[in-house]
Amino acid sequence: MTTQNLVQEETTHHYRTVWISDVHLGTRGCQAGALLGFLRSFDCETLYVVGDLIDIWAMKRGVFWTQEQSDVIQKILRKGRKGSKIIYIPGNHDERIADFAGDYANVHIQPRAIHTTQDGRCLLVVHGHELDTVVQNMGWLAHVGDVGYQLLLYLNTPVNFCRRLLGRAHWSLSAYVKSSVKNVVNFIGSFEESMVRFASDAGAQGIICGHIHTAAMRKIKGLDYFNTGDWVESRTALVEESDGQLRLLQFSPSGDILLALSDSGPSDNTVAPPSRFPVKARLPEAVPV
Q1: Average pLDDT over residues 94-118
Q2: What is the pLDDT of residues 47-60, one digit of tens each?
């Protein structure tokens, strides 16, 4: 695995495949502008939307919608019209979309998918809430956790306003809570191991998911684990180049590529987790929802 810092902006780059997840349109935390910048910078053969594109949970409490959020949907649909295959895998926040599973021109709504990379790896693609026992068995608690997460995001604004007045850098309250609360850290580790077991049971060589808002690219028990992150705080996406190499990209608020973590393929058994990014370029994290 190689890490590249300060990757130059790419204009109209072609990817074989792109995965995005946890956009959470309909919320104030959604960074639609950054996602638009990314969507405008590439074309691809296949675009996977790996759940929680629209946050129906949040919209039940109160609708927040901007023109940029509408533009995200229009841009995704436009890619379909231009020939990209769009595979939409609903998550827990947009689970009602699963009621409309089927094929709509170049848009395909389905619960999961098997993706074969150019270099021959068979990867299971799911949102990830399927193995979240809180979501599956205690839905009310999951909703409470979602409200708490939104509160942390809301508090980020006044906290960072005060930090700017004091000449301090941006700081994520939710990332601090996540790194400080042992149960959250344990949850993430258990989630990752459960996901690779899920992939193994399906006969796949690895898994691509979202859900926990923690971007990652690593080997777990000999299988590939990829988490696409989110577009609320980390602004990350997973892409496949024409040769099958997968890259985890992080973007600036304007949609420019800031950081790329590269996967060297099936023969690499030394893939390091994103926590080994240089300190100044470490992927920001958010609590699982």
Answers
A1: 95
A2: 999 999 999 988 88
Report the alpha-carbon distance of residue 49 to residue 66 in Å, rounded.
20
**What is the domain extent for residue 82?**
2-281
Confidence at residue 14, expressed as pLDDT on a 0 to 100 scale: 96
Please give the radius of gyration of the chain, using alpha carbons only, rounded to the nearest integer.
18
Instruction: Count each helix (H run) and each strand (E run) in the chain, helices first.
Output: 7, 14
CB-based contact 274:283 (threshold 8 Å): yes
Domain count, the chain: 1
Asked if the structure places residue 287 within a domain, the reply is: no
Question: What is the value of pTM for the model shown?
Answer: 0.75
Run of H or E including 153: helix 139-165
Report pLDDT for 170. 60
pLDDT score, position 289: 38
Name the DSSP class of 273. Answer: P
Q: 């890259």: which residue's tokens?
A: 247
